[in-house]
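task queued by scheduler; priority normal; single chain, no ligands, no partner chains; default sampling; output format set to structure tokens
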Amino acid sequence: MELILLPVISAALFAIFGKKLNQWVAFALSAIPLIFLISLVNSHTNPGWTTIWDTTWLSVNFRFTLGYDGFTGLMLFLTNILVPVILLAGVRNDENKTKITALALLMQGALNGVFMAKDGLMFYIFWELALIPIYFITLSMKHKDAFKITLRFFIYTFVGSLAMLASLMYIVLNKTNLSFAYQDMLNATYSLNEAILIGGGFLIAFLVKIPIIPFHSWQADTYTESPSAGSMLLSGIMLKMGLYGLMRWFMPLFPESLDFYRPWIMAFAVAGIIYGAIIALRQNDMKRMIAFSSLSHVALITAGIISGNKTGFSGASLQMFVHGVNAVGLFLMVEIIESKLGTRNLDQLGGLAKTNRLFTISFVIIALGAAAVPFTNGFPGEFLLLKSVFEVKPVLAVLSGLTIILCAAYMLRMLQFSLFGEGKVEIGNLAIHQSLALFIVIAMVIAIGFFPQFILDFVNEDLEQVFSSIELKGALA
């Protein structure tokens, strides 16, 4: 419960005293939940999603239930490591600094709630609560179409949420005797048509959040024009809500529908892999390039999940963490460039490598991680995901593998045009808080590249439990 309450209290403190506080205070407040998370990890000795908080909320059937296992723990570590990094160096010192910091802390609590919720109603409530702060963060964008871009994002996500709510209500009214408990929902039985229709409600909510073609049209503008903190929260953490939802909720609850949905989702995912990468190649705006790169990478994670094998589950869990680290790292590099030079357009950059060696090394390492170069964090998960797709459809795996070539092309293009060539501008020295944020990101890029098995061992026993619940319904071979 501390993982939810502490960020909310911190958000309130920043909302009241924010003008007197700096990024170091925000960093410290957002990092405190890590202490309680480590204690939670140490107390989790048996595999399986263990209930850690359960109390009556509205009635005996409407309960406030939270759970923990390795998969949840991985998402909690992602959230509670990246939010401090974002608050340390990703919030620009302008008139919106206090507001964005308080909203990011509030979102940290809501995200922790999404990943811990072990009750359908609690999952939905935290899912909606996470939308409120990011809505106001994105609305802070300095763009003439700020309201239009934010409204499109809101409509997409809100309609997806309503579809999930409709499915939840059908389940509790017809299948679980008014219980939202995860286990009761898991034990419910559905006809094929029911699984397709009810599961479809959950699926829409998750695919919008990821996003996957054709639910993606809100993503590029929102990622590009949002304040950098908003872009990092959206790409680094919030989209993982959709991927987590696929693995924790959709597939275990409605495995009967997988044969119906799998061909469509796989096709759209592979299309997204190629489409996102090709469009990224054509961008001069670095934030827009990273936005389309994210679209391509999460499409591969989705393909691995929906392939329905253990390799895909392992690769997806690893790559969800890795993508969060790399996306935040890349947006952080762009934020540093834009805040110092007033531009993020490749046509106006060049020669930055001559002016700051630390910045150059950091940028190269993070970009190589995003491009999945061996012995960086991006390689192991991407390899497992491609293998999982190959086990289902070799042709789609070959097409998905184009991401390796295309990602290398647009990442190297971004490095070439910004760091090398004729010097046009100087980046100058980095502040201490910026250097520390980059150090945390780079440490994870390198450490995960050499020791990916640490994360896989952390989640695999609990993923086995999730996978078994799907197999029990006879949906997987």
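post-processing summary
- The two ends are 38 Å apart (CA to CA).
- DSSP finds 20 helices and two strands in the chain.
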